[in-house]
Amino acid sequence: MQSVxxxxxxxxxxxxxxxxxGGVLVGVVFLxxxxxxxGVDQFSVLVVILSIQALLLMLDxxxxxxxxxxxxxxxxxIEKINTxxxxxxxLTLIYxxxxxLFISAHGFFDYLNEITIGNFLLAxxxxxxxxxxxxxxxxxxxxxxxxxxxxxxxxxxxIKAICTLLVLKYVTSSVNGFLIVHCSLGILHVLILHRVFxxxxxxxxxxxxxxxxxxxxxxxxxxxxxxxxxGVAGALALQADKLIISHYMSAAEVSAYFFAMTFCxxxxxxxxxxxxxxxxxxxxxxxxQIKNEEILHLVxxxxxxxxxxxxxxxxxxxFFRDDIxxxxxxxxxxxxxVSKYVAILMPGLAIGALGFIPFVFLTSIQDFNFQARISVxxxxxxxxxxxxxxxxxxxxxxCVSYAIYHSCSTILSWGRxxxxxxxxxxxxxxxxxxxxxxxLFLIICLFLLK
Length: 450
Description:
By secondary structure, this protein is mainly alpha-helical. Helix content is 85%, strand content 0%.
């Protein structure tokens, strides 16, 4: 059997890494420039808009996951393209309804009058195009067009960043200037992605046969319902902590916590996400065809890639955390506090990142309801712990709660995969490969944190 990591596969994976890391680096480089040009007040508004944008990418009603799974399956091209069109139409309908409700309610409620219809339309267009970009990019990755999807994404992010900087510097230093650029280029980005997708050879003969039907919309809506709950729970877990903590604690403590969380999560997301994106379509396709030997082959490389990257980078960051933090936060007076929180968070978040493995297995057999239920339950417990920690003024307790939350999510997902007959063999095999390195990782963490 040919290796998963032959030359073409390595190039595909590197492109996924480049696309993910490029987006983060562009943000790191350009956001400070935007802040300087906009000023404190306007930049704070932009931060809120970007936070909502990130939140809505998680609350896409599961369309990216549904499209990703359905297109990765070995089915007829007409079925794939119908799923694609139905998902895009469903998202369009949702945003049209939201826009209609806002315009209808505008003028009846005083607090809505503070937002002009023009500003709302710009913001909703930004959110809508971002969700569509994510969904269509996922569709391209699911049919294993890795280099194409990554290249379009990387170039688009860079062009948007540069054009926005030029507009803010030479045309208008305002949030509206930012929104106009991103909306205009966002629409162009969506059109390019859509044209590339339907122009792929697999779909050329049936792209005009794709029909949007009520049955198709109902199908994707019902499939997306548990995934929406899953997204809501995930969004609360990632965002609610900052709102609660800031109400009870000082700005310095909140900043230290924010830096620690960013230090731990950003590298894991940049590295773990692309690996899962690369292997998920391959594993889903193999599982739906019940190609046992191919699945075991893919699982072996998937587990080794996740463990090798996630655990090694986590150990590196733990060991050199003081040096890295001192360079990164040279002007921040509470670096030792950040280091303390990193030491608590990192082991649990690393185990949490390994949850990508059972997530791919569960997604391959559409076991979405379990993921939604367990995510909601764990999030409720986590938010309760955040309230307790904030009330007691114990950020270390909140960090421990987060570490346990992510670890429990992975363990429970893995346990669920073992219980399901369709993927039990592959899950047990994956666990047999992972258990040794994970135990060694935990022992090393204990040694480093003494």
